[in-house]
Write a structure and sequence with these properties.
mainly alpha
Length: 96
């Protein structure tokens, strides 16, 4: 028996997940920039700071564009009566 999955079963949009991952790369580069600067490695600090700013800006941009296009959070499920009804029909089999 195979389980059929549709786009409504997974509310996270793939582009938003990629955007969030890019944001995390930028967020991770920020402490590297500070650490490199503290140890006197100016070039490495500058490169890490540029990666941090660009990564966070691109990540936030992707997630915000997807949120506007979907009219709800691209990373979190939409909690509406329609979504609740879908959950009851598909997973609980208690739809009335």
């Amino acid at each position: 028996m195979s389980i059929r999955r549709t786009h409504t079963d997974n509310p996270q949009h793939p582009a938003a997940i990629v955007g969030f991952a890019i944001f995390l790369v930028g967020f991770g580069a920020a402490p590297l920039a500070l650490t490199a600067l503290a140890f006197g490695h100016g070039t490495a600090a500058l490169v890490a700071a540029i990666v941090a700013v660009i990564g966070m800006a691109i990540g936030i941009g992707i997630v915000s564009v997807m949120t506007r296009r979907l009219h709800h959070s691209a990373l979190l499920p939409d909690e509406s009566p329609k979504e609740e009804q879908h959950y009851l029909e598909v997973y609980r089999h208690q739809a009335a």
